[in-house]
Specification:
six-stranded antiparallel beta sheet; 6 helices; 41% helix; alpha+beta
Length: 186
């Protein structure tokens, strides 16, 4: 049997990657990425993430895409959203296709029902929850602290590099100073 790959499927006869299998407050909707609309490089880079261990271990692929960047330096999830490549669809219209064998295929709404049942939760509870304001504030404080720590480290490195450069090639200091006493009045 072929290896199964999570987060892939079909919507309206087209291949898609499942970014979110269900959405907050919209348990019957999902966000998918139509692969035919991607450039060749974005397609290949996206599938490297999908097929990676992190991608396969993720409950929702978008959580793995969020910190990743394409080779051009653009954030994957942000770029997909900005280019309207995250498409909201009804879960009943998506078929999850983890392998070429049709017997492994399953409608996304049925898969969500199975996962919810296994976890003992409702389908609504499967959606990734939005951060609370407290979490965001903590994250901003952590980010600010990290910036300060990095700045301190860079400052120390600048001082050390300046010291080394001065040891190798001491700076030229001007020994001639002109003062008003040295000038001759005409």
């Amino acid at each position: 049997m072929a290896t199964q790959v999570k987060h892939v499927g079909n919507f309206a006869g087209k291949k898609v990657v499942l970014a979110y299998r269900t959405l907050p407050n919209e348990p019957l909707n999902a966000l998918v990425i139509p692969t035919e609309r991607l450039t060749a490089s974005y397609h290949d880079e996206l599938f490297k993430v999908v097929e990676s261990q992190n991608g396969q271990d993720a409950f929702e692929l978008a959580t793995v895409l969020a910190p990743k960047k394409f080779a051009d330096g653009n954030n994957m999830l942000v770029t997909l959203a900005q280019q309207n490549l995250l498409v909201k669809v009804e879960t009943k219209d998506v078929t999850v296709t983890p392998s070429p064998q049709k017997e492994t295929w399953l409608p996304l709404d049925k898969l969500n029902e199975q996962i919810a049942e296994q976890r003992g939760v409702s389908i609504s509870d499967l959606a990734v929850k939005e951060e609370s304001n407290e979490d965001t504030a903590l994250t901003k404080k952590d980010t600010a602290r990290n910036y300060r720590n990095r700045a301190d480290t860079l400052y120390k490195e600048v001082i050390e590099l300046r010291r080394r450069a001065d040891e190798i090639d001491p700076p030229v200091t001007s020994s001639k100073k002109t003062s008003k006493k040295d000038t001759v009045d005409a």
